[in-house]
Amino acid sequence: MNLSLRLAHLYPKLMNLYGDRGNIICLRCRCEARGIELVVEELDIGDALDPKGCDLIFMGGGQDREQRRVVRDLLDVKGEAVREAVEESVVTLAVCGGYQLFARYYRPAVGDDLPGLGVFDAHTEHPGENVARCIGNVVAQWDGDTLVGFENHGGRTFLGPKASPLAIVRSGYGNNGFDKTEGAVYRNAYGTYLHGSLLPKNPHFADHLLRLALRRRYGEEVDLAPLDDSLEQAAHEAAIRVASC
Amino acid sequence: MASVRLVGAIAAGRLAGIASRAFGRGGGTALPGVVAERIDPRLVEQLSAQLGHGSVMVTGTNGKTTTSHMLSSVAAKAGYLPLHNRSGSNLMRGVATALLDEAGPFGRLSQAERRLGVFEVDEATLPEAVAAVRPRVLIFTNLFRDQLDRYGEVDSIAARWRDTLQAAPESTTVVLNADDPSVAALEASARGRVVFYGIDDRAPALAEPEHAADSRWCPDCGREYQYDVLFYGHVGHWRCPGCDKSRREPGVRATSVRLEAHATRLTLATPQDSVELSLRLSGLYNAYNALAAVSGGLVLGIEPAVVREGVESVAAAFGRQERFEIDGRHVQVFLSKNPAGLNQVLRTVAALPGDKRLLLLLNDDIADGRDVSWIWDADFELLAGKAASVVASGRRAEDMALRLKYAGFPPDLPVVGSAAEALALALRETPAGGDLYVLPTYTAMLEVRALLARLAGVAPFWEEQP
């Protein structure tokens, strides 16, 4: 059987701050190595999302200026389709600024709240321009394993009752620096502050996303062939090493 | 009459420099400035005010060091005595140290009347540096994302530059890269004369856009810039379809650009004569550095022929295409510290003839940026399949190796954390007469360059003669 997955990449030109395309490169390579075709559709401002035509959705982080530019389009043009896709368990990954926009709202240090998609029952508050940003290497506990990455965010995110944390912080700030939570999960949608890029250094998490997407599309019998991840593991361990010093 | 405070600051700074060198802690290119500035915060202002010919300052994400080396060379050919923070130590402490090195114990610069300050300045340090030095000429190269964990977002640097220009003296001439829209936009904030430089020749255009572009949208109307020609990143012949802004016709412009393996030939049209330039450096980014330096030299009133001679005589600045001969192997170091700069290096190396051996070093010290995710924004794919051997090294060697694997390099490439061991391995893999290209981040460059200098018998940079 020729397997194929379709990934909708939201705002690749605007939301690409911290090597986010590494996540796409990683998914593509890990699909190719298993003979799975990954079709990436880039959706910019004005482009509609077909909730039935995608197996994966990805959105990266951006500067404040870029986030302000995409928020209107995300809510008005793509919002309903994204929410529908998430309810249909389409596998979704939103990183940093993308994560914030997928939550309920963002409260800046000054000015009005910026509404978000509300995929995650969570909100973000900026504690004020004089408060230090959360910057540094992160190690977090996820599914009996670790996730590693780098975070750089001013806003602090707090989860509501309907969202679960993606991971528990071992080293770093995570969502807010207080409650040890990192990221959020709702159905098959994942939000996280980790870049670095996230997926290349966390191949088990990349494969988790691919496995979910394949099973959703083709049923339980489809599984992923293991790959030689020795270099991925070495980079993962190096990230743990630098985070602890 | 020098103040007691200034005299004390100079004495303490000099002592710190002697100690730093004696204990082998480095070149003493920053510590004396730190110490002296703590004692007298007005040190830079007081010493730079004595520069007989004033000063020229260079800032921007990439190209500062090479451009200022070219300017220093031009100044020397024109008969000035350049006072230059030539090691690339470009925070206030670096500027202070360069001034201290030429100051007498009572706060007098030696041969002050013949001096021209040539200062490269970190993009975030610019406001302070301009306020203290009040340069005659202020040159901007380009603006790209760089060390986001340290500088913050690109927009905040642009805002800082605008504020700096609004507070700068009217007597400062501002020299801008017409082809970088975020630099060209500074014209609106300049109070004095503005000079633009750029490339007119369309020959070096990119076939398709790069990922590492930052200023793609007009900050005023939000529309995406359109390009007639794109040279790299977001640099090219741009115009905004929304609000009628477009690239200005540059006063100093390259009408012909010929990129060769180890040279670049340019024909420049200037308000005076046309200039034929033959650079000993390769890559389009060095064509821009030369344009910036030529513009600066002409604004200073130096004859075009002298400007040309000065720019042409620059071989390479510290770690920027610098070459070493080691046991018959040709080693060249290409400092690579952000996606846009690295892409230029990758294109330049890809165009070089012959078998390529590569050594890539990725560090994550504060001066490199702690965040290494930027390597995913650079197009290593340009070199995949083109290297006869490759070694990944540095504190984040594994991250570099992983990036290379996903770019299509062999997944079993050697990963060697120690720079010394990695260099030894890369040299072993390079046959006599062969070429080894070393691509390090900033602190890795300092390390690998020191190793190479020792092997090649070159003096350490702080003993380098101008």
- Count of individual helical segments of chain A: 6
The chain-level mean pLDDT of chain B equals 92
Q: What is the total domain count of chain B? A: 2
Low-confidence stretches of chain A: none
Helix/strand/pairing class of chain A, anyone?
A: alpha/beta
- The percentage of residues in β strands of chain B lies in 15-25%
CATH secondary-structure class of chain A: Alpha Beta
- Greatest contact between two chains: A-B, 34 and 32 residues
**Strand order of the biggest β-sheet of chain B:** 2-3-1-4-5-6-9-10-11
CATH architectural type of the largest domain in chain B? 3-Layer(aba) Sandwich
Percent of residues in helices of chain B: 25-40%
Number of domains of chain A: 1
**Percent of residues of chain A in beta strands?**
25-35%
CATH class of the largest domain in chain B: Alpha Beta
> Count the helices of chain B. How many?
15
Structural class of chain B: alpha/beta
Mean pLDDT level of chain A: 94
How would the blueprint of this fold be written?
The complex is a heterodimer of chains A (245) and B (466).
Chain A: E1 4-10, H1 21-32, E2 37-43, E3 56-59, H2 64-87, E4 91-95, H3 97-102, E5 105-107, E6 114-115, E7 122-125, E8 134-142, E9 145-153, E10 156-159, E11 167-171, E12 181-182, E13 184-186, E14 189-192, H4 198-201, H5 203-218, H6 230-243
Chain B: H1 4-22, H2 31-39, H3 43-48, E1 55-59, H4 64-77, E2 81-84, H5 92-101, E3 115-120, H6 126-133, E4 137-140, H7 148-151, H8 154-167, E5 173-177, H9 181-184, E6 194-199, E7 226-232, E8 235-239, E9 252-259, E10 264-269, E11 274-279, H10 284-299, H11 304-312, E12 320-326, E13 329-334, H12 339-350, E14 356-361, E15 387-393, H13 397-406, E16 415-416, H14 419-429, E17 435-440, H15 442-456
Parallel strand pairs in B: 1-3, 1-4, 2-3, 4-5, 5-6, 6-9, 13-17, 14-15, 14-17, 15-16
Antiparallel strand pairs in B: 7-8, 9-10, 10-11, 12-13
